[in-house]
Design brief:
Blueprint (H helix, E strand, L loop, with lengths): L10 H11 L17 H16 L3 E4 L5 E5 L9 E5 L13 H17 L7 E5 L13 H6 L5 H5 L9 H8 L13 E7 L4 H5 L3 E18 L16 H19 L5 E10 L9 E9 L3 H21 L3 E12 L4 H13 L4 E6 L4 H5 L5 E6 L15 H20 L2
Parallel strand pairs: 3-4, 3-5, 5-11, 6-10
Antiparallel strand pairs: 1-2, 2-4, 6-8, 6-9, 6-11, 7-8
Length: 414
């Protein structure tokens, strides 16, 4: 039996679920601070698993702590159509970033139960571990491992500032699963707030993501020498803090140089040791990234960022090592899904446009594993990674209904 064209999600139930999530890991007023594998992350995971089991979904956890919840299909031997995103947040995060994609997928399954519709293919929901990268670098490390970009030992060995590893913290909170095989997906859909102002400014209800800004990020370490800040001669100083600071300024300048054509460069993080008055720092670490809608220009920006690392080190008479480099974006999403999903949105009567994603998402890695599509909802003013991040139920309802119909159409095809 085909899904009725009039089928819609239960918006009130979905919003109650969002509001319950917003109570777990509160941060600044109105926001969340639910870092990956923290006690608050464990609490929301436990709640999510309980919701899934209440909905009759079978839950399993993989070796990177990603949670999969499965709704059986009429032909359960077929690969599942998967929906998902993440429940972890930035240190000053909002209530919707990532969360809408996970809890929206749960609402799709709940709605299908209410309608008595069993899809031909099974459906799965996934909550990916550490999408944000706020506690463990790099971001999207669990989906990256699942897609084959990272080795499991390397991924589980990522550390936070206190030296805790992902693997140990997964064990501590009870989410270090034993599943190491990467099972096949029929396809993957990720619903997400836009994290930009375009849909809101234009009054569009749904964005169909046609690709992502090609992006490059780097984790860099600078090494110098400690010395007294008073008597030590300038020509003999090896101040790692200064080397790192020079890189951050160079990366910011790079962003401004390309801003007119849509480029962006971010000096996101600087830590140093000893980082105290009276002594030069002999160690510093930075995180930076560049992105641009044009792939060739993005590559130029990435190379200039790389060169800036060693120029900054040389000016401060320090040494530099690029510890990690990550790349994502481009024209990575499935053409047939990009074509089918806007047609679904327009058939439901929603104002729809194609759009590039400017942020990183788990979907970028999963596009290497299966045909992938992203659906954007408006976000007021484009404000995200901020406690003032705001969406209303009415902002989210069109995207939820497009997800419902697009996923069912994909799962029910012959």
């Amino acid at each position: 039996m085909a899904l009725a064209a009039s089928a819609r999600v239960d918006l009130d139930r979905f919003w109650r679920t969002i509001e319950r999530s917003a109570e777990i890991g509160p941060g600044r007023p109105g926001g969340l601070s639910r870092l990956a594998l923290s006690d608050a992350d464990k609490q929301v995971r436990d709640e999510f698993v309980a919701w899934c089991r209440d909905a009759g979904l079978a839950v399993r956890v993989d070796a990177m702590g990603s949670i999969f919840a499965r709704r059986t299909g009429l032909d359960d031997s077929l690969p599942p159509v998967v929906m998902g995103s993440h429940l972890d947040t930035q240190i000053n995060g909002g209530r919707f970033d990532g969360i809408v994609g996970v809890l929206g997928a749960l609402e799709v399954c709940r709605t299908l139960d209410r309608l008595g519709h069993r899809t031909r293919r099974p459906l799965e929901i996934v909550n990916w571990t550490n999408e944000e990268g706020a506690r463990f670098s790099p971001p999207m490390v669990a989906s990256g491992w699942f897609a084959g970009a990272y080795d499991l030992d390397w991924a589980q060995g990522r550390t936070d500032e206190a030296g805790c590893t992902i693997g140990d913290e997964l064990g501590r909170i009870g989410y270090r699963g034993t599943v190491t095989e990467r099972h096949a997906f029929d396809s993957y859909f990720e619903l997400h707030i836009e994290q930009g102002p375009i849909l809101d400014a234009e009054g569009q209800q749904v964005g169909i993501v046609t690709g992502g800004f090609p992006s490059t990020g780097m984790l860099v370490e600078f090494t110098g020498e400690t010395a007294h800040t008073g008597p030590w001669p300038m020509e003999r100083r090896k101040n790692a803090l200064v080397a790192a600071a020079r890189l951050l300024v160079a990366v910011d300048d790079l962003g401004w140089a390309f801003a007119g054509s849509g480029g962006k460069a971010t000096a996101a993080r600087l830590v140093a040791q000893p980082n105290k008055p009276g002594i030069l720092s002999d160690w510093a670490q930075t995180v930076t990234d560049v992105r641009h809608p044009d792939p060739e220009t993005a590559a130029v920006m990435a190379e200039r960022m790389r060169r800036a690392v060693f120029e900054a080190a040389a000016r401060a008479d320090c040494t530099a090592r690029i510890l990690d480099t990550w790349r994502w974006g481009g024209q990575i999403f499935a053409a047939d899904l990009i074509e089918a999903t806007p047609a679904t949105s327009e058939r439901l009567g929603y104002r729809t446009r194609g759009i590039l994603s400017q942020a990183g998402h788990d979907a970028y890695f999963i596009a290497r594993h299966a045909p992938t599509a992203m659906i954007f909802t408006p976000c007021r003013g484009g404000i995200t990674h901020n406690n003032n991040e705001l969406c209303t139920p009415e902002d989210l309802e069109p995207g939820l209904n497009v997800l419902l119909h697009a996923v069912v159409a994909r799962a029910d095809r012959p």
